[in-house]
TrEMBL record:
Entry-linked Gene3D superfamilies: Glutaredoxin
Positions contributing to Cu cation binding: 78, 82, 167
UniProt record similarity statement: Belongs to the SCO1/2 family.
Keywords linked to the UniProt accession: Copper, Disulfide bond, Metal-binding
Cystine pairings recorded for this chain: 78-82
Residues annotated as transmembrane: none
Name of the featured protein: SCO1/SenC family protein
Entry superkingdom: Bacteria
Span of domain Thioredoxin: 40-202
Molecular functions per Gene Ontology: metal ion binding
Organism annotation: Asticcacaulis biprosthecium C19
Statement: the UniProt record of this protein carries the keyword Disulfide bond: yes
UniProt-listed InterPro entries: SCO1/SenC, Thioredoxin-like_sf, Thioredoxin_domain
Length: 204
């Protein structure tokens, strides 16, 4: 067999492998898209809640309607993840530009014993925090209920006045109908998060 024929056969073999790989890739992506469409809404983060905001007003899940909402769970005594995430969300507001009017931030405390409406207000009014952020707290039962509804976690660590919380650090993006859209892991840059939120707003 000549070298020319060997080259032709080799090229044809590589082409077949490439086509098989492309077909597998397309089928795999299709399965992933279908899986995301078929998710049971009852198993996604979100749901009914009744809490109290930093102004002492009762707030329900209806507050999420009409805007894209970034929901973040934390507490005012948090030494690291919470202030850094909220400061990042403040930068996201800026990077959204004109779309920021359709976006809001909700900070839900997992520490009802210390996070009163007044302490939440002082915390969110401090420098570097997102403008217009809604801070929510409640009774231990109310907080436990919303933590469960959002499939998040919050566990008290330690005793006495210096206790902390081990909690989920993701940001949940809810659509203007209050439905879960996506979540963003801690550590994403404000630019990355803003880009993803813009894509969600555009239906991408």
């Amino acid at each position: 067999m000549t070298k020319f024929r060997l080259a032709i056969i080799g090229a044809a073999f590589l082409a077949l492998i490439g086509l098989a790989g492309l077909n597998y890739y397309l089928n795999l992506n299709g399965a992933q898209r279908n899986a995301s469409v078929d998710l049971d809404p009852s198993k996604l983060p979100g749901g009914a809640f009744t809490l109290t905001d930093q102004n002492g007003q009762v707030v329900t899940e209806a507050a999420l309607n009409g805007k894209w909402t970034a929901v973040f769970f934390g507490y005012t005594y948090c030494p690291d993840f919470c202030p850094l995430t909220l400061q990042a969300l403040a930068q996201v507001q800026t990077q959204l530009g004109g779309k920021a009017k359709d976006f809001q931030i909700v900070f839900i405390s997992v520490d009802p014993a210390r996070d009163t409406p007044a302490s939440l207000k002082a915390y969110l009014d401090s420098g570097g925090m997102p403008k217009g952020a809604i801070g929510l707290t409640g009774t231990p039962d109310q907080v436990a209920s919303v933590v469960k509804a959002y499939r998040t976690t919050a566990s008290k660590v330690g005793e006495g006045d210096a206790y902390t919380y081990q909690h989920t650090t993701a940001v949940y993006l809810m659509d203007p109908r209050g439905r879960y859209n996506s979540s963003y892991a801690y550590g994403l840059s404000p630019a990355e998060m803003a880009g993803m939120i813009k894509d969600a707003m555009a239906g991408k």
